[in-house]
Amino acid sequence: MLIRVLGSAAGGGFPQWNCRCPVCTLAWNNDPRVSPRTQSSLAISADGHHWLLLNASPDLRQQISAHSILHPVSGRRGSPIYGIWLTNGDIDHVAGLLSLREQQSFTIFATRGILDELAANAIFSALAGGAVTRRAISHNAEIAAGYGLDVTSFAVPGKVPLYREGARVSTDEISEMTSGLNLRHGGRTALYIPGCARVTPDIKARIAGADVVLFDGTTFVDDEMLQLGLSNKTAARMGHLAMSGPAGSMAALADVVGPRKIFIHINNTNPALIEGSPERRAVEAAGWEIAFDGMEIDL
Fold it and tell me: What is the pLDDT of residues 128-174, one digit of tens each?
């Protein structure tokens, strides 16, 4: 099973277009300790020729251009991308679908709740119905996703997309709106969980049984955005689990030692993006890696 990290940043990418937080400022100044990152998405393949994308980043056009494995391969129009699997309806995970509207055949895999969100927004009708199949997926049912790859979607605590929030928001509900993915081929297993509000016993057990997990690494501390004066929302309010702290993901998964553990969906404010920083050293000491665009994982 081949996994390629197309984008490793959270919404807005890194550096974020309008941000001069301490970490983004390093990027704008071309500091060698930080590397630019596009918004979170993976490409996965069981045969090296047919690729399933996990989420469709707003940066998808740039990501396809940067990875020759995703370039057109046959005929006037022919992409090796045969499907897109969505883990939620967030803008940074669905907006890239609009870059795939040129009569190319592929399948969108998602829960009924996420497909309903797409159907409710007329702009996604640009994805021609005659070419693009929308396949509703139920949690905990293994799906033969094509070309030797088996995928199981499972519920992850989270919230509805920002554009669907009302006056009251449940930030860690179990529903169809936030999913993790169990990806299996040839006896090897990878987990992709780019958004997670808390680690449940089910999630912990799934991670313990995997070969590799790519997990939500949005912020280093829960009140990161507040400390910087950039937002009035904590990571928890945004439906994410901070890396550090007694309730953070590193503590919650400290006793899970089998799989390779990689943080992805990393916010532009997260100081763990800085190589050699105290935060990066803390992440590495806890047995975690920081994903980067172009990262290759072969199982």
Answer: 778 999 999 999 999 999 999 999 999 999 998 878 877 778 888 89
Q: Residue 286 — very low, low, confident or very high, per pLDDT cuts 50/70/90?
A: very high
Sketch out the chain's domains with CATH numbers. Answer: 2-298 (3.60.15.10)
Q: Which of 172, 130, 167, 131 is nearest to 155 (CA)?
A: 172
pLDDT of residue 124: 94
Length of the chain (residues): 299
Cα→Cα distances 20→36, 227, 245, 293, Å: 14, 14, 25, 21
Concatenate the DSSP letters of all residues of 208-221 into one string: HT-SEEEEE---SS
Q: DSSP E strands: which ranges in the chain?
A: 2-7, 41-45, 51-54, 81-85, 106-110, 132-136, 142-146, 149-155, 179-185, 188-193, 212-216, 260-264, 288-290, 296-298
Task: Please measure the distance between the N-terminal and C-terminal CA atoms of the chain and give it in whole angstroms.
Answer: 5
Residue with structure tokens 């890194």?
14
Torsion-angle region of 265 (φ positive above 0: left; ψ -120 to 50: alpha; else: beta)? left
Q: What angle do CA 298, 138, 236 make, to 5 degrees?
A: 75
User: What pLDDT was estimated at residue 164?
Assistant: 80
Backbone angles phi, psi at 118, to 5 degrees: -65, -40
Q: In sequence order, which residues have a C-beta less than 8 Å from that of residue 204 and are 6 or more positions away?
A: 252, 253, 256
DSSP 265: S
- In the numeric block, which tokens belong to residue 40? 């979170």
Pairing of strands 2-7, 296-298: antiparallel
Q: Which residues pair with 82 in a beta bridge?
A: none
